[in-house]
Design a protein that fits this description.
Hypothetical Protein Tm1070, Chain: A; five-stranded antiparallel beta sheet; four-stranded antiparallel beta sheet; 9 strands
């Protein structure tokens, strides 16, 4: 009975704190994000923008004085037929901001050789090693946002909304498939199938 008397105050405090007294931080596993784009390459419609931030978490693990902590955003752009059209890997330094135009960077060099895709899906993997979207090495530390171009009922007036990228689950099969599709696009595209990266902190 005495033991119960000692435990009751602890349980009450834990419940008041929302049960967090016994919770353990599992760590940040946010390294895979998805979103959509719409009304790209459409006459009269504004351009959509993908923005990605390096929150600096990776840099805090480095020894003082070592200018490290750079991450890459591996970007995979699909059309609405589930076909990969472009991929690329863009460097994002700690506390840096990457801004990618949907029309000018993400759909301007499609695998088909024509910049005509108007809607589809964008997937982003945080990669610890810059420059190779064909073999992503997942790491947390990126946060992203996307502007969406919404058409009105008449298809002549457009509105812009912005949402965070959806934090998603990345299976090993999905990571491998994205890397392979990107490799095929780079190999078979003969210069097409790769998106371009804007200078960091350059916005539109």
């Amino acid at each position: 009975m005495k033991k119960l008397g000692y435990l009751l105050p602890i349980l009450v405090i834990a419940l008041m704190l929302g049960g967090t007294a016994f919770a353990q931080d599992p760590g940040d596993s946010s390294y895979y994000f998805v979103t959509y784009y719409s009304n790209a390459n459409t006459s009269g419609a504004p351009d959509g923008t993908l923005r990605i931030i390096n929150d600096g978490d990776y840099s805090t693990t480095e020894v003082e004085g070592v200018p490290n902590g750079n991450l890459s955003a591996d970007i995979y752009v699909f059309d609405d037929s589930q076909e990969l059209q472009e991929c690329c890997s863009c460097l994002v330094s700690p506390d840096g901001l990457l801004s990618e135009s949907v029309n000018k960077e993400l759909t301007a060099n499609e695998l088909t050789g024509r910049a005509e895709t108007s809607r589809g899906v964008i997937k982003v993997i945080g990669d610890r090693y810059p420059g190779d979207p064909t073999d992503p090495a997942e790491i947390a530390g990126l946060r992203g946002f996307m502007t969406h171009i919404q058409a009105g009922a008449t298809k002549t007036a457009f509105a812009i909304t912005e949402t965070p990228l959806a934090d998603s689950n990345l299976s090993s099969a999905e990571a491998e498939a994205l890397g392979q599709l990107c490799s095929f696009a780079i190999t078979l595209g003969s210069g097409f199938g790769t998106c371009s990266c804007t200078p960091e902190d350059h916005d539109f």
